[in-house]
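name: query_chain
kind: protein
chains: 1
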Amino acid sequence: MGKGVESKEAKQMLEQQSSSDSNRDSENGGQPGDRAPSSSRKCAIWKRPAVLWTIIVALVVIIVALAAVLGVSQTGGPLNSLENRTKEQIIRGSKSSRDPTDLHSRLKQFMCESSPNKPAEGPGCKLCPQDWRLHRDQCYWVSKDKSLWNKSRNDCSRRDSRLLAIRDQAEMAFIQTITKDTPQMWLDLTFTSSSVHLVWMDGSVVNRTLFKAVHLPKENNNCGVLKADEISFENCSAVSKWICVKESFPI
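structure:
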């Protein structure tokens, strides 16, 4: 009888002990029988520094990229040619001065060649289109091909210019220097048997004293050509080189 009572009391004590262990596990957030809460806490501790290091590395990369971009924009990149520096000087000067005369002066210095006899600020600063030659106030274009007189004249008109008509001795000397290797060039001149005076196509009279000789034709439908320092005439259906003339652009 005494042994039965003791075994019953021991059983009750074991049940109470088991119940208290279960309550402690519930308070710690685990399930009964869990024995590895410490390993979970260790994982959580190691995860936090890894995340922090990832954020730090990302910030460093962003800062380096921003520094590189700002550095390029401030230095202007590799474009440091002479032309760009010259343009920057003109722009800088135009910003510092609102006077149109000052800007005009800077453009002259940039576009015009200066020399002791022809300063860039002087009145002789003129511009011509590409492949045209400047002489005083006019631009001259010399053809490389040969063509009919009327087609040559039309070509000059298309270039907003006129066929060559020599007006004075200085122009005559200049034409001889640029045509010394050319046998003949068309002139803006025609002749008919009814002509009383030699006149250019614009109606002005030809100054015969500029030429060594003027050889008048015996037939109609003849167009003027320059041969060295003489005026001669060829059939207008012949072909020859030609010169176009137009006013230069002053700056």
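note: The helical segments are 2-27, 37-75, 82-96, 100-111, 149-158, 169-178.
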